[in-house]
Amino acid sequence: MVPTKRPLEFYGDPLPGVETAELQGKLIVIEGPDAVGRTTQISALRTWLEAQGHAVLDSGMARSALAGKGIQQAKEGNTLGPITMTLYYATDFADRLENEIIPALRAGFVVLIDRYIFSIMARAAARNEDRRWIEQVSGFALVPHAVYYLRADVKDLVSRVVVGRGSFDFWESGMDMRFGRDMYESFVRYQSRLIRSLDRMEKRYGFEVIDASKPPDQIFKELQRRIVRLFAAKRRRPKAAA
Amino acid sequence: MSILAPNRYKGKLIIVEGIDGSGKSTQLSLLSHWLRAQGIAVAFSEWNSSPLVRETTRRGKKKQMFTPTTFSLIHATDFADRLERYIIPMLKAGALVCADRYAYTAFARDTVRGVSRRWVRNLYRFAVRPNLAFYFRVPLDVALGRILGGRAEIKYYEAGMDLGLSRNIEESFRLFQGRILEEYESMAAEMGFHVIDATGSIEQQQREMREIVLRELGDSLRSGVLRTREGDDGADKASA
Predict the structure, then answer these.
(1) What is the pLDDT of chain A when averaged over all its residues?
(2) Are A87 and B71 in contact (CB under 8 A)?
(3) Is the pLDDT of residue A242 over 80?
(4) pLDDT tens-digit series, residues B21-68
(5) Beta-carbon separation of B80 and A67 below 8 A
(6) Is residue A16 within 8 Å of residue B68, measured between CB atoms?
(7) How far off is chain B from A158, nearest CA to CA, in Å?
(8) Is the pLDDT assigned to residue A221 strictly greater than 60?
(9) CATH code of residue B164
(10) Contact flag B73-A12 (C-beta cutoff 8 Å)
């Protein structure tokens, strides 16, 4: 079962100046709502993959050289509108894609991405923006080799926030949209919307769903199993097919 | 056919487009003074001026970090911020909003940079369709003469140096502006631009603009839009 499209195509119009045939590495995406444990998994995966001799790049939202700082500053203010936010994150993603991810794929790296265009799309949808619009804007993204969707219910997220972090974050609670009267209510409604949006993308974008209500070490083992399978599938595929 | 959603608000939106040196900013400034003098509440928004995005754009330009895609996206972000935070609230309040450059600038410029025409048009789909869009048509040499004669230096991205058209910055600017001009010309009819002959005298161009504003928006100016003072029925009496 390979629900994703053939690797290394673009979803929409290709990025100018990118020769996808040159991209030798593996593009792996971890998706999921806030506080689901993506960061923990990515750092464990990185250690494991490097121990196996893979060169690994990890990349996450708002970490671009171009727009990372600007997004952080914009989030500190109180005036970041929903469309502006969507496009700012799309700028950040494009900068990382063109200047970090694609060069790393060219050099044969395994690229682990903590949230891809799907989170940008889910956040836009949760804020009632036009789905088709943001989907087409995101069309310059490469189709990853695999998208692992860490799926949990809101109650799991709530307990992780309360126990793990000790407080609700303004943006993770969608407080810019005031989905509820306080941080807790807004968090629950906003994260439910995000989860619904991600659920709806599962088939269309070939997400592999991983039950993230389980303990982290079990999630890690599940990810390992799937990545081993993904790499094996690559070796079996005859080169002439390309 | 326009791809932008029509303006449903009480206020009106007037925008100007044209290549560098077409004189559009001068004309829009004259028009906005005239409108203010009629007692109309005028708001003004300029391309690439959002404080939220300024630092990022500055960093990208200074270090020459932009690709065609990120250049396009950061300008769309800038535009979105101005639209969400300023233009739409002003239109809702009933102001007459004057914008110096609009989404069409991106349609022309980003396409020349190599992003797909379809993609960049979709990118700006959230924009409000202007009630009036003026396009200042000017031959390339006239515009270049105004720019190259009057300004100290042309900047890297303004000259389209990132496209690698020429190593000489003036030559690059010439080629880049020429291509943008072609893009403007090819969309003028489709986008419903009111074309102003920008080789005419400043006074002549302004007269034409005012006539078009009165013809197309006269009724709204008399009653629809927000006014800074009452009563004076100046908009239609004003002579250009």
Answers:
(1) 93
(2) no
(3) no
(4) 999 999 999 999 999 999 999 999 999 999 999 999 999 999 999 999
(5) no
(6) yes
(7) 31
(8) yes
(9) 3.40.50.300
(10) no
Q: Is residue B4 part of a domain?
A: no
Identify whether B95 is part of a domain.
Answer: yes
Which residues form the domain of B122?
Answer: 12-227
Q: Which residues of A touch B128 (CB under 8 A)?
A: none
A66 touches chain B (CB under 8 A): yes
A74 contact B CB<8A: yes
Task: Give tens-digit pLDDT for A152-178.
Answer: 999 999 999 999 889 999 999 999 999
Of A228-242, B108-122, B143-157, the poorest mean pLDDT is in: A228-242
Q: Is A128 on the interface with B (CB under 8 A)?
A: no
DSSP B37-78: HTTB-EEEEETT--TTTHHHHHHHHHTT---HHHHHHHHHHH
Q: Which pLDDT does position A241 carry in this prediction?
A: 38
In a domain? residue A131:
yes
Percent of chain B residues topping a pLDDT of 70: 94
**Within a domain: residue B181?**
yes
Q: How many CB atoms lie within 10 A of CB B35?
A: 24
pLDDT of residue A152: 97
Q: Nearest residue on chain A to B88, judged by CA atoms?
A: A81
Q: ipTM score of the complex?
A: 0.92
* Residue from the list A12, A84, A133 with its beta carbon closest to the beta carbon of B77: A84
Report d(CA B113, CA B119) in Å as an integer. 13
- Distance CA(B142)–CA(B159), nearest Å, equals 16
Q: What's the domain count of chain A?
A: 1
Q: Does A87 touch chain B (CB under 8 A)?
A: yes
3-state helix, strand, coil in chain B (%, to 5): 55, 10, 35
- Residue A156's identity, in one-letter code, is D
Domain for residue B193, yes or no? Answer: yes
Nearest to B70 among A79, A83, A98 (CB): A98
